[in-house]
Amino acid sequence: MKTVLKSAVAAVAVPAILLSVSVNASAQTAMPEACKSEMSASGDMKMPEMQMGQMAEHQKAMMEGMQQMHPAMMQGMMAKDPDVSFVCGMIAHHMGAISMSEVELKYGDDQQAKAMAEKIIDAQKKEIEEMTAWVNEHAK
């Protein structure tokens, strides 16, 4: 998966720029209440009181996946062409979804959640292939 992202980002030669992003109000309201319990009003995680060493293994695995996905997504979205920016950002975003799904398959117990994770992995991999091909064809 990392190779796919590297080739997509290399194709557009965007600089590595880290940005802080807050969740906008419409995205906040779209989230189920149970999903918002650990998020502040700005969308930032309340992490200072909980160090990585104190997390459960599934939490560590999720955080590691997100720590890899976020900079790659932000970097991809810095392309000057809005179409390329969108597609490159989405490649990294989909890679994050795959990472989270793999954590569910490893640590989860609920068969319905595991089935959702498997569907996500299959769909996201196919879409990453399609988007990578598009970037390779359209990025200037």
Automatic annotation (TrEMBL):
<feature type="signal peptide">
    <location>
        <begin position="1"/>
        <end position="25"/>
    </location>
</feature>
<keyword id="KW-0732">Signal</keyword>
<dbReference type="InterPro" id="IPR012347">
    <property type="entry name" value="Ferritin-like"/>
</dbReference>
<dbReference type="Pfam" id="PF03713">
    <property type="entry name" value="DUF305"/>
</dbReference>
<feature type="domain" description="DUF305">
    <location>
        <begin position="39"/>
        <end position="134"/>
    </location>
</feature>
<dbReference type="InterPro" id="IPR005183">
    <property type="entry name" value="DUF305_CopM-like"/>
</dbReference>
<protein>
    <submittedName>
        <fullName>DUF305 domain-containing protein</fullName>
    </submittedName>
</protein>
